[in-house]
Design brief:
The protein has 15 helices and 14 strands. By secondary structure, it is α/β, with parallel strands linked by helices. It has 2 domains: about 5-155, Nucleotidyltransferase, domain 5 (2-Layer Sandwich), CATH 3.30.420.40; about 200-380, Nucleotidyltransferase, domain 5. Strand 2 and strand 3 (about 30-40) form a beta hairpin. It is globular and about 55 Å long. The two termini are about 25 Å apart. The structure holds adenosine-5'-diphosphate (ADP). Adenosine-5'-diphosphate binds near residues 331 and 332. Adenosine-5'-diphosphate (ADP) binds near residues 287, 288, 331, 336 and 337.
Length: about 400
């Protein structure tokens, strides 16, 4: 009987999932279906699409608003759907995206109660993601206690960074207590690194910056397809301006908010993670599509600041690499917003970026080059695929091979 793998990316009100067919060791994983459960805690819906993107399911499901019961009931619905559409496959394992693995987890890990307790400790460092990532693991363990679950970390790809890129200029004992720059979006960067040679040839192993611009956003500087620096740091607040997160901020602002303005820790956390970024500056939305569609001057300014920050930090990462040979855009905004890409590329002309306007504007999906033939820096749009990375890691952990070696290709 063939086996299937389930990949889960669990957020505050939605769960994204993908199911893969597992053939023999070493053979490619084929995606059977993907989908999402939306509106957990309110009017929940289960939506599933098939291999070719055709809709397979779209219906209301009943889940309670209770933060523990809600996810468990949502997963019950998902497993029930999978059972009915399994076509003779058994579910062999579930792989999860877990945002923070701290220093301890530089490789994907099969989850045990002890590991889960260690991962709980990182919740204050990733309050938007970690609790939901872990509650999905707990909910599934409650429903199917014998099903192997594997945690794949967004921090692990950055373990190759040199000491200077990881360190904060703080006293040694604080650094030794784990206050370091970890970097995030690692599963996305790992996928892009695995496919770069298919598109860039020898340049793939050169000086490359990948811009993951989604609701969360960061840049990763790569050399030899390994992470050398990232704009995200100790938490996923640092670096670029995001949908609702502030990005780089003078730490004196936090002292001022809590001291002179008397804000509590919780209020500052909410302000920086949920009320800032595009939402805070535009006063309209944290969603780029909505902000781009607005004529309001605040919306224009929000995009100006977003672009300014991307360009400023692109320069910083190019400096850390000592040059730039390729720039890759990925994730929701990077893959879909031609105007954002155009503005970033215009601001990066000094680095040798020359955009092919027509290629940039073309309504296309899939990987594509958007720089001119004469551009000193190759510019590409490459759709990311974090789910596939998680599925490959999960398969490798279960087959006792440790982590999947993404440099061997096969993505
Ligand atoms: P997540 O980080 O939740 O995975 P995504 O990678 O899906 O998010 O990115 C979501 C962002 O992408 C949102 O700001 C959304 O508005 C933006 N986006 C998606 N499609 C477009 C588009 N056609 N034009 C501009 N922005 C877009």
């Amino acid at each position: 009987m063939t086996q299937a793998l389930l990949v889960i990316n669990s957020g505050s009100s939605s769960v994204k999932f993908a199911a893969y067919d597992v053939a023999g060791p070493g053979s490619a994983l084929a995606r059977i279906a993907n989908g999402r459960i939306e509106g957990i805690g309110g009017q929940a819906r289960l939506r599933v699409w098939g291999q070719g993107g055709e809709p397979l399911e779209d219906r209301r499901i009943r889940v309670s608003a209770d933060p523990v019961l809600g996810p468990e009931e949502a997963f019950e619905e998902l497993f029930d759907w999978l059972d009915r559409h399994a076509a003779g496959r058994t579910l062999g394992a579930v792989g999860h995206r877990v945002v923070h693995g701290g220093e301890r987890f530089a490789q994907p890990a099969r989850v045990t109660p002890a590991i889960l307790a260690q991962l709980d400790a990182f919740t204050p460092l990733a309050p938007l993601h970690q609790p939901h990532n872990l509650s999905a693991i707990r909910a599934i363990a409650g429903l199917l206690p014998d099903l192997p679950q594997v945690a794949c970390f967004d921090t692990e790809f950055h373990a190759t960074q040199p000491w200077v890129a990881r360190a904060c200029a703080l006293p040694r004992p604080i650094t030794e207590a784990g206050v370091k720059r970890y970097g995030f979006h690692g599963l996305s960067y790992e996928y892009i690194a695995s496919v770069l040679p298919d598109y860039l040839g020898a340049v793939a192993d050169g000086k490359v910056v990948v811009a993951h611009l989604g609701n969360g956003a960061s840049l990763c500087a790569m050399q030899d397809r390994r992470s050398m620096a990232s704009t995200m740091g100790f938490t996923a607040l640092d670096g670029l301006m995001m949908g609702t997160r502030c990005g780089s901020l003078d730490p004196g602002v936090v002292l001022h908010l809590m001291g002179a303005m008397g804000m509590s820790l919780q209020a500052v956390e909410k302000l920086l993670y949920e009320q800032s970024g595009l939402l805070g500056v535009s006063g309209i939305s944290g969603d780029m599509r909505t902000v781009e569609a607005s004529e309001a001057p605040e919306a224009r300014q929000a995009i100006d600041l977003y672009v300014y920050r991307v360009n400023q930090q692109l320069g910083s990462l190019a400096a850390s690499l000592g040059g730039l040979e390729a720039l890759v855009f990925t994730a929701g905004i990077g893959e879909n917003s031609a105007s954002l890409r155009r503005r970033v590329c215009e601001g990066a002309a000094w680095l040798g970026v020359a955009l092919d306007e027509e290629a940039n504007e073309a309504q296309a999906s899939g990987a594509r080059c958007i720089s001119t033939a004469g551009s000193r820096v190759a510019v590409w749009v490459i759709p990311t695929n974090e789910e596939l990375m998680i599925a490959q890691h999960t398969q490798a952990v279960l087959q006792g091979q440790g982590a999947h070696d993404w440099r061997s290709g096969g993505a």
